[in-house]
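Suppose you are handed a protein chain with no further information: no name, no annotation, nothing but its sequence. What can you learn? This example shows the usual starting point.
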Amino acid sequence: MEYIFNELSAVNLAKNKTQAMVWMQTLLKTCKAAEKLGFSQLRVKNDFTQIIISTNYTILDWLHDTDRESQTILLTLIQSPLIGQEIQEEKFIYMEKVLLANDVKNEIEQEAEGLGIAYLTNKNGTLSISFDSDSKWNDTEISLIYCFEKDKKLCKEHIKCELRAK
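A reasonable first move is to predict its three-dimensional structure. Written in structure tokens, the prediction is:
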């Protein structure tokens, strides 16, 4: 089984390099726990290692700074693109986009590709993991807006996505 990195959890930067390193170690611990549950691949965007996690500090920088075991664990787990070929072939995955909704005003904040794919593929047992970068990732569910085309009309459906692991 696969799980997906919630790239929106990397929008807020860690306050310093030390906190960024803690986030990465927590991510690895979560990956190890997921592995015990049968998850073997962490799906990420192609630019995953270029993600900035603190001022002037990327995941690639962390890979250079961390120990060999942590490097190996992460590099062995990550796979891109976000959707594997076997999932792409299922018709329910073809979508316009999924957006993160602001719970207070229910306005659109930004595209939520990783969370959207995790939501749409949940029947396959997919989960999404996040950095502990914002209190919203500590919630048990998050509001999303699923945008799709039906009968040549753009439709929007408000959905709730369960956050299974942090």
